[in-house]
Design a protein that fits this description.
- This protein is of the alpha/beta class and 588 residues long.
- Helices cover 44% and strands 12% of the residues.
- It is built from 21 helices and 14 strands.
- The strands form three sheets. The protein has a six-stranded parallel beta sheet. Strands 9-8-7-10-11-12 form a six-stranded parallel beta sheet, sandwiched between helices. A two-stranded parallel ribbon has the order 13-14.
- The radius of gyration is 27 Å and the shape is globular.
- The two termini are 21 Å apart.
């Protein structure tokens, strides 16, 4: 089948978000053909280029989100009227927010039902306006200029001043409205792309969005215009990420409220339109349910890690580095969410109980000046808490806390970082899926972690978990394992067995292979597949498509759909040969 893989700021760019996961997925499903539709976030990301793509990638279409040159489109009176109506509806849905019609629902079941109906009505209103703008962009070859126009700002202003608007929206001033309009324009740039053609996204059997939000927007339009089913994978919930980021930007309350309502409306429509949603863990799944996702659509698929790179350390192969029984290891990206400050204070308590203990902090600072500043702050605190120590009067003093990065002579590889200590520590206050924790488990190391994100789900009883921001509890758990090597060994072996069962690349690929087949087998056939001579292609459509049922009912298409996009046969893609060994392994 042909898969349209949708990404934002990730694959196929070097160092993009979720790039490694997408690459493993594409390479692991060599029997399918992938078309990549990628949105880039920065000019630097585009300058860095792409990773090397496997042969099953048919084509790559990219578009920048960081810039959008004026399309030069001059809209006529009718198009301007359509834009004003659609954008006005979108602004009204955003400014009304989820509270419209259901304020202070205290009146029992009837009031709760009224609130749910109101929220559903707002979602319908947002979706109708979004698809109205998409149809206009398709008919008029773009909406970049219109989304930046004064009429867009005026529509926002009218919606904010309308009866029933959010209380915070009513306080919006002109600079606030300009900020919100600019953000919405950037978020809706995918509407003006030329991807929505019958031989592009319209030819896909399935659209797979590697994230929610902007990455899934082209998939929404492919479903709207062509009926292509949409699969959404979220290892980190985009709406949650927006909420966390908004809390640190210092924007005006009106801006925060309006942008939260916009992203909430987009997330609701993505979850409603998706055929299936695959969160990476239960923590993300709970967030998706709170944001309106139907529980029946949710399938948890854990991220896959390459177990082979940690095999020597995990299995204790002869020649691999032996763990130092007095060393704690922390591995990750240095940023405030990892709460290394609490870890350093906990280590001070650990040193009182076990004076020989050492701590290795392995990782580079997060991008931007904040990460560098936070690393400098941590180093200064470590120097203050632990003055350089020397064993004798003539020995050189050394700090028990070491800050290191992977790639140096002491730590040439990631596996070596975990191999250096007997105990791995995670001190985060905010966490999604704890990749470093899974890596430590694959290395057979006992762990002490804080209860953040999906930590408890990942650990599953094979390590110790303490409350976040509690240095004393973190220290006590670490001391308990440092003094009990047999318990450390048992926990490490159990952790490795759990990681091999649940968090490998193989289980991730097998899960998506089954999901792809399930979705396509229940999707309506919208066109006839033909071979090179124009004859119908045998087995070009699933057998279930010929059985009368809900899955074969035609979806209603927009009345504004142009004729050239209707019912045109699609040429079959040339199948990619699959090695015999791979075929046998897959069948097994």
């Amino acid at each position: 089948m042909r898969i349209g893989l949708l990404t934002e700021g990730g694959y196929p760019y070097v160092g993009g978000d979720a790039g490694l996961w997408c690459d493993r997925l594409v390479r692991g499903l060599g029997q399918h053909e992938f078309d990549i539709y990628a949105l880039s976030r920065t000019e630097r990301q585009e300058d860095e280029g792409w990773i090397r793509l496997p042969p099953q990638v048919g084509r790559v279409r990219t578009a920048p989100l960081w810039t959008a040159p004026s399309d030069g489109v001059v809209h006529g009176r009718r198009a301007r009227r359509r834009f004003s109506e659609a954008y006005g509806e979108l602004a009204a849905a955003v400014c009304a927010g989820p509270e419209a019609g259901g304020r202070e629902a205290v009146g029992g079941t009837e009031a709760a039902g009224d609130t749910a109906a109101s929220v559903s009505l707002q979602a319908d209103r947002f979706a109708g306006a979004l698809y109205g703008l998409a149809e206009l962009a398709r008919d008029e070859a773009g909406l970049v200029g219109a989304l930046r126009s004064e009429s867009a700002v005026r529509a926002l202003e009218r919606a904010c001043r309308a009866p029933g608007a959010l209380r915070s929206a009513r306080t919006a001033r002109v600079p606030d409205l300009l900020t919100v309009a600019a953000h919405i324009e950037r978020a809706l740039r995918p509407l003006s792309l030329d991807w929505y053609e019958d031989d592009l996204l319209g030819s896909a059997d399935l659209c797979h969005a590697a994230a929610g939000g902007g990455a899934a927007l082209p998939g929404l339009l492919a479903r709207h215009f062509f009926g292509v089913p949409l699969l959404v994978t979220e290892y980190g919930v985009q709406l949650r990420a927006h909420y966390l980021a908004a809390a640190t930007l210092g924007e005006a309350p009106a801006v925060r409220a309006l942008l939260a309502a916009f992203h909430g409306g987009l997330a609701t429509e993505v979850y409603r339109a998706a055929t299936l949603i695959t969160p990476g863990n239960t923590h993300a799944r709970r967030w998706q349910e709170r944001c309106g996702a139907d529980r029946a659509k949710l399938r948890t698929v854990h991220p896959g890690m390459e177990a082979a790179r940690f095999a020597d350390v995990g299995e204790g192969v002869e020649g691999s580095r032996a763990a130092d029984p007095d060393t704690l290891v922390w591995v990750g990206r240095v940023e405030p969410a990892k709460d290394l400050i609490s870890l350093l204070h906990a280590f001070a308590e650990i040193r009182k109980a076990e004076p020989k203990t050492r701590l290795r902090i392995v990782g580079a600072p997060a991008g931007g000046p904040d990460g560098v500043t936070y690393l400098a702050h941590c180093k200064a605190l470590a120097a203050q808490l632990f003055p350089d120590e020397a064993e004798g009067a003539h020995a050189v003093g050394e700090n028990p806390v070491a800050f290191e990065e992977i790639g140096g002579p002491e730590i040439p590889s990631l596996a070596e970082a975990y191999a250096g200590g007997a105990l791995v520590v995670l001190s985060s206050v905010v966490e999604g899926f704890p990749v470093s924790l899974v890596e430590a488990m694959l290395c057979g190391r006992a762990t002490v972690s804080t209860d953040a994100g999906a930590v408890v789900e990942v650990i599953g009883g094979t390590g110790l978990v303490v409350p976040p921001r509690n240095p004393r509890a973190l220290a006590e758990a670490c001391v308990a394992l440092l003094r009990d090597p047999e318990r450390r060994e048992r926990l490490g072996a159990a952790a490795r067995a759990r990681a091999l069962e649940l968090f490998t690349v193989e289980q991730n690929i097998a899960a998506f292979h089954g999901i792809y087949l399930e979705i396509v087998s229940h999707s309506p056939v919208s066109r006839v597949l033909v071979d090179g001579e124009g004859e119908p292609l045998p087995f070009g459509v699933p057998a279930e498509a010929h059985v009368p049922g809900r899955w074969t009912e035609p979806r209603l298409m927009s009345a504004g759909r142009p004729r050239w996009a209707e019912g045109a046969p699609v040429r079959a893609t040339v199948p990619v040969p699959v090695p015999v060994a791979a075929s046998v392994g897959e069948g097994a």
